[in-house]
Write a structure and sequence with these properties.
The complex is a heterotrimer. By secondary structure, chain B is an alpha/beta fold. Chain B is built from 13 helices and twelve strands. Chain B is globular. By secondary structure, chain C is of the alpha/beta class. Chain C has twelve helices and twelve strands. The two termini of chain C are 16 Å apart. Classes of the chains: A mainly alpha, B alpha/beta, C alpha/beta.
Amino acid sequence: MEIPQIPKDKFKLLNNAGNKEQEKIGTPALTYMQDVRRRLFKNKVAVVCLTLLTIIVFISVFAPIIAPYNPNAQHATLSNLPPKLGNLNIPGFNGYQNMGGKMVDAYAQVHAPKGTYYLLGTDYLGRDLLSRIIYGTRLSLIVAVLATLVDLLIGIPYGIVSGWKGGMTDNVMQRIVEIVSSVPNLIVVILMMIILKPGLISIVLAIAITDWVTMARLIRAQTFQLKEQEYVLAARTLGESSTKIATKHLIPNLSSTIIIQTMFTIPNAIFFEAFLSFIGIGIPAPNASLGTLLSDGQKAFRFLPYQMWAPAIILSIIMIATNLLGDGLRDAFDPQSSD
Amino acid sequence: MDKILEVKDLHVNFATYNGTVQAIRGVNFDLAAGETLAIVGESGSGKSITVRSILQLLAKNADINKGTILYHGEDLLKKSKKEMDAIRGNKISMIFQDPMTSLDPTMTIGKQVAEPLLIHNKVSKKEALGRAEEVLRLVGIPNPKERMNDYPHQFSGGQRQRIVIAIAIVDYPEILIADEPTTALDVTVQAQIIDLLKELQQKIGTAIIFITHDLGVVAGIADRVAVMYAGKFVEYGSVDEVFYNPQHPYTWGLLDSMPTLDTSEDDHLNSIPGTPPNLLNPPKGDAFAPRNEYAMQIDLEKQPPFFKVSKTHYAATWLLHPDAPKVTPPKGIQKRFEKFKKLGDK
Amino acid sequence: MAEDKEAIVQVKHLKQYFNIGKPNEVKAVDDVSFDIYKGETFGLVGESGSGKSTTGRSIIRLYDPTSGQILFNGKDISKIKSHGPQMKKFRREMQMIFQDPYASLNPRMKVKDIIAEGLDVHGLVKNDDERDKRVRELLDMVHLNPEHMTRYPYEFSGGQRQRIGIARALAVDPQFIIADEPISALDVSIQAQVVNLMQDIQKEQGLTYMFIAHDLSMVKYISDRIAVMYQGKIVELADADEIYSHPLHPYTKSLLSAIPVPDPEIEKTRQRIDFDHKSSFHKGQKLQEVMPGHFLYCDDTKAATFK
């Protein structure tokens, strides 16, 4: 073996004792949430879904400004007009429709005033479909937000108390959860309508009564694990109160579970409302929701398919996007999925 | 000596979000038939990754980007998945740290022990189960015949690790890789398992690569010892050479930071200050330099090559360079040198 | 026991059972008595399932003891209410250092908030400036860079995290600290750092430690007296040197014979002593002082042989 030639002065001993560099942290400071965000943004599908949802939420929030017409204003003469996009001659969006094998300008036939365009056409009462979809989406999202709030306000505290107390308390609380979850929520809605009128309130209440149990169960299971974590034990030996432990230690560490579960609650609530409205026990006329639009559109589907396509596509986008975003968030929150 | 395994210039990188972690940065070693090589290092030193590379049991984001692993002269890194499957669990087998997760809770232990035989050897089921019983007896499971039909949860932690070992040796492998097999066990059980491994080695003549962070365990089982730090070997030699004539300051630190039963409370323990380097940006020079009491300017600039101490003993520290100053190692190490002299006189 | 020493903790017939009355009842701690003197380090060793950690957690009242007394500075703390002024005072006087440096720090909190948790609970600082100042002092005390106080735990190595845990315990100025396997999850080179630090702080602040561990060589090094626990009972208790040089109980002997020593010559000649786990306890045995300061779990006839 050859001994490398090195200048002699390089062999002076450095005095390393008390070297502060030894305790230096090499990696850049990055909070947990920054890390999550970075992982989420690496997931292209999740980013696309997030963008779509943001747009949909934005339009719904500003519906009164964005919607071109009053969604409930009827124009008996202008009923069942097909989509028309200005004077552009795009097939499907030029105001022509198939009548007895011939393409005719439907707008001209009903003598619509010049400059009348319905981007997605009108329904059987001459209401602008685009405006109705915007308002309908808004209503569906309100249902989703309320359902989520209930999930958070009942499900989380319930789960934490049940998991934290354990023993007899937990036993009783879990039996209650089992009873609640054994009642189908359709029955709850129907019962609800005996007391209340059909509408937003009874739907939200029905969801409120039945939907939080999944969240409560998940949170309980997680709390059981967290309460044995040494940092929670440390907080107890320091004399921290149970409420403080819940807010400082449990909830922040439950946040990923909460966010992910919420992502699955939202489409469930939207779909449930749509389903109720579709079968006719949901949002009453004349208000639009995605469910009532689908129901109306389905009746004329064979002749005027556009009336069903548009709300169906929007509903599908919301459902798929929230589910995929939920998946993306789950991966982003899970440090194991680091590749 | 007959070399059955030679690892040459092994480099393994891991792709992470923060960049590429150079987990293994040039590792060379060989293994002779029937011997025990212990690789000692702290967590993150790369000792587990080194042996997992041999069986290609690395995570998806790992990349063996340089080096060869010769098993009887054939490069394992060039083998197909199928060829590797034939080697794993048959010629080279592995035992892991946690006996709880190494066993399938839904399968009887008899079947689990017999499984490698059925996969590799095409023996009849009866033959395989007979062999399983024999091996279970060998690893010290009482009444193996009756207990073959029991499930893992019916055994204690120590017994489970015995079963794991039984699975690993049922095909009499040429090489047994033991990755911290006793770390999760109590001291008394640990002692039993080590005795068992030594006994088995004599009976079936398998070579063992033993990965651990516990120098006490190493002293009891190894023929040769390699000390690993920050993805490289820093010192290797026979067990007596590494324990009684250590040359690398990191080995000194490791040996001296453990109290022996005759260290009194008035002596302060010799601790190694600081923490291991981040292998995202490995240091240019000796990775141990920032924590090294005996660091020199050259340590910060250039990685030390291996200097020969004896025919079997090498250490990568500039302190062995002829121009380096003579340093006084810690007291505990000096005592070890004295022992080494006595051994040499014998 | 020696009369001149003042006991800070006296454990009397402590029992800690779980799932009482159910088929899976566990007698984790089964009638254990011992004293810990002011200023000493009391080692408690045993293997997994011996009840050593449960003993520690019962003393610090993470569990409600099934029966028995725990006197802390002469006052029985085994039955005080879990949320009351007495408990609040007790929470300042006794603290704990935990085993797992990764699980013992809340990953969502900044280091300074972790360390200041006790300060906040007990209102020990008036404002944020004072709080930051105190956190800096504590970080300095455990040899960590105070500049890192706004970082999150995962950026620190195992040894550094363990020192953050020590700083958190020290923040409330305790008199007595239970260290529950504080080094068993750390690398060898880091263990000595933490042990040295704990000893320095003990000298500076006159602390008393109870050091729970399964690593017998480190326990021997750090402890003044050692109790060996097996199946919920203390089988032997004596001075650290005494217990290593003259172990009396077969279980202690078996434990000592199993300690791996980083010395090949010793390892080659080591004779493992097996302990028969089945015939461990029988009636009429209790922990009694068979020699001055040396306690053994045995029956009276056996005890008489030492007289």
